[in-house]
């Protein structure tokens, strides 16, 4: 199911397509999209296979790409600001390859920026990859549950305890396959679509240090790009400070 957020009263300025990450669904963007509406913009948050009530666990990255691209095409959206959070960064890379003519700017919000031939799992420290592989194996091989301790310390590290526990209760096991798929991104690196990176400075999902981190490690792969920074973590800031996230997305997405 696609969550649609129509623009508020007033002249339309920007059209955002918001792509969520792993261990989330399109509802991740609900509060931020409402704030974008309040600022006079349109926001669409497409859902993709294996998420948002879809019980499938054998989905592929290509199916996710197709679902997002088809949603954009079906609505005949053009000149969009395509935003990808976390795993959604890899999705907006592949969607951009598929429908570049519909995209005005790409924005990564603490999103993975993969090099050609890489997977999202390739960006994680080996102990985390090993933990995910063990969790997937214990679940039967197709999903990865998110342990509360890991979620609390890295995904929702700015939240208080009650909020972190509430958010974690909404989390469903993540289909494992797309996280480990190697992606062909040759076309992405030949595109001339403008790019931005919104860096949430307290996000603990990737460790800071050589070879890891959202910025400058991930962002630096974009070549020429616009850098926007805000205080925030991976999962809770969109709920506690959606107005801040919306304003920063506008900064990242404007011409």
Automatic annotation (TrEMBL):
InterPro entries named in the record: AB_hydrolase_1, AB_hydrolase_fold, Sec-Metab_Biosynth_Hydrolase
Domain AB hydrolase-1: 16-187
Keywords, comma-separated and alphabetical: Hydrolase
Pfam family of the protein (one): Abhydrolase_6
A molecular function (GO) term: hydrolase activity
Domain of life: Bacteria
Gene3D superfamilies per the UniProt record, alphabetical: alpha/beta hydrolase (3.40.50.1820)
Protein name: Alpha/beta hydrolase
Phylogenetic classification of the source organism: Bacteria, Bacillati, Bacillota, Bacilli, Bacillales
């Amino acid at each position: 199911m696609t969550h649609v957020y129509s623009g508020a009263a007033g002249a339309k300025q920007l059209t955002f397509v918001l792509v969520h990450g792993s261990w989330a669904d399109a509802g991740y963007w609900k509060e931020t999209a409402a704030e974008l509406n309040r600022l006079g913009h349109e926001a669409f948050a497409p859902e993709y296979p294996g998420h948002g009530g879809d019980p499938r666990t054998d989905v592929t990255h290509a199916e996710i790409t197709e679902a997002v691209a088809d949603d954009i095409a079906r609505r005949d959206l053009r000149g969009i600001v395509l935003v990808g959070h976390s795993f959604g960064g890899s999705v907006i890379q592949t969607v951009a390859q598929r429908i570049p003519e519909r995209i005005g700017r790409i924005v990564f919000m603490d999103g993975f920026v993969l090099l050609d031939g890489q997977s999202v799992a390739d960006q994680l420290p080996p102990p985390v990859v090993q933990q995910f592989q063990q969790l997937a194996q214990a679940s039967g091989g197709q999903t990865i549950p998110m342990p509360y301790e890991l979620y609390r310390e890295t995904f929702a590290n700015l939240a208080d305890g009650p909020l972190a526990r509430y958010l974690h209760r909404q989390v469903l096991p993540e289909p494992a396959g797309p996280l480990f798929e190697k992606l062909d991104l040759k076309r992405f690196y030949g595109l001339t679509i403008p790019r931005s990176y919104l860096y949430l400075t307290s996000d603990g999902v990737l460790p800071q240090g050589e070879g890891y981190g959202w910025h400058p490690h991930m962002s630096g792969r974009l070549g020429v790009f616009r850098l926007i920074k805000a205080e925030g973590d991976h999962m809770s800031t969109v709920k506690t400070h959606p107005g801040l996230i919306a304003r920063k997305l506008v900064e990242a997405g404007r011409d």
